[in-house]
Design goal:
The chain is of the alpha+beta class. Helices cover about 25% and strands about 35% of the residues. The structure holds adenosine-5'-triphosphate (ATP) and magnesium ion. Pfam families: ABC_tran (PF00005), TOBE_2 (PF08402).
């Protein structure tokens, strides 16, 4: 039996004047999952959410909710709760009245309303503050009430557009964990928008990385981080190092790549992009995360699976839990993050930098 997705976007194109802001979006959201749209400012995250909510229509393509095309269905009939990016609560209404608003629109019986509002406020740990006005709440409390207001109508679909923006780091962290817990507790299908990669990785079942109106990759958080499919995803998520090379040979599981005068290795499963047909002589770009590299005084023969290359230290920064070490390798600056570092080493010292072919990614030029 074919399962029906809670939301499906097929071939959506959206233009504002001559500006194409969504350029062929295809997306499937499964029942009960927390899916995050992640990407830089202006890439089309809010526009995508507004298409699903019905505040905007696509110029081409269609949106389906539970298998039904919703092209002409107005937002209030789409059975969704939404927290908007730019404004949240009605300032002239109390917390209770803010939550009551959506219930009134849905003509919920008076006898049920009190119970539903109490339950929603309990879920976000705001019970007892029913009579406060938004101005009498802290930023974090307001965000919670905005989430409660979206939840109180018991929507089939929850749309959260950067609900944690404008909060300090500690509160963001707390609310992040709370939203995740709440979402799993009530099992509501949720689309969460953020431009914060750590937020996306820590909260989501799946992450959609967007760039300039297109989807670059849809994967689990670990796959997004460890197996990015495009250069954009690699560089947008986490820190990255990259350098140029030329394929020397390929033997079954490993690709040998000439970098400067050295040879380094890449697992064949780590070819990024759509063109995975690598041949000797191909010009390629190699990518590796700073924390996937090791520093040693000499090539470590006990770790024969690692490639070691001679490099020169150019800067050392102590960050508390890690050391950030900048090196020059074949004339190319690279950064290494390491929890253990011999503090007697200094700028200008020669060291060996090592990595596993399993952590090196390759993209054909
Ligand atoms: N109503 C509009 N009229 C014209 N252009 C618009 C309109 N709404 C959005 N845009 C443009 O569409 C593009 C995508 O905007 P969108 O709000 O979807 O970005 P976003 O990914 O949510 O960004 P942010 O992280 O800054 O919120 C931007 O270039 C924006 O300027
Ligand atoms: Mg936005």
């Amino acid at each position: 039996m074919q399962t029906i997705n809670d939301v499906e976007i097929k071939g959506a194109i959206k233009r504002f004047g001559s500006n194409t802001v969504l350029d062929g979006i295809n997306l499937e959201v499964k029942k009960g999952e927390l899916l995050t749209l992640l990407g830089p400012s202006g890439c089309g995250k809010s526009t995508t959410l507004n298409l699903i909510a019905g505040f905007l229509d696509a110029d081409e393509g269609d949106v389906y909710i539970k298998g039904n095309k919703v092209t002409n269905v107005p937002p209030y009939k789409r059975d969704l709760g939404m927290v908007f990016q730019t404004y949240s609560l009605f300032p002239h209404m109390t917390v209770y009245e803010n939550l009551d608003f959506g219930l009134k629109l849905r003509k919920v019986a008076k006898s049920d309303k009190q119970k539903k509002i109490s339950r929603a406020l309990e879920l976000v740990k705001m019970a007892g503050l029913e009579n406060r006005y938004p101005r009498e709440l802290s930023g974090g409390q307001r965000q919670r009430v905005a989430i409660a207001r979206a939840l109180v109508v018991e929507p089939e679909l929850l749309l959260l557009d950067e609900p944690l923006s404008n909060l300090d780091a500690k509160l963001r962290h707390e609310l992040r964990a709370e939203i995740k817990r709440l979402q799993k507790e009530i099992g509501v299908t949720t689309i969460f928008v953020t431009h914060d990669q750590e937020e996306a990785l820590s909260m989501s079942d799946r992450v959609v990385v967007m760039n300039a109106g297109r989807i670059e990759q849809i994967s689990s958080p670990t796959a997004i981080y460890n197996h990015p499919e495009t250069e954009f995803v690699f560089q947008f998520i986490g820190k990255s190092n990259s350098f140029d090379g030329k394929v020397a040979s390929i033997d079954g599981r490993k690709i040998s790549v000439k970098v400067g005068d050295d040879i380094t290795h890449v697992d064949v499963g780590n070819i990024m992009g759509t063109d995975k047909d690598c041949k000797p002589g191909d010009e390629v770009k190699l990518y590796i995360r700073p924390e996937k590299m090791k520093i040693a005084t000499a090539p470590d023969s006990s770790q024969s699976s690692l490639d070691f290359h001679k490099a020169t230290i150019t800067q050392i920064n102590y960050l508390g839990t890690t050391w950030e070490v900048d090196v020059l390798l074949h004339g190319k600056p690279l950064q290494i993050l390491t929890p253990a570092f011999d503090a007697t080493r200094q700028t200008g010292n020669e060291v060996y930098v090592g990595w596993s072919p399993a952590n090196m990614m390759l993209l054909k030029k």
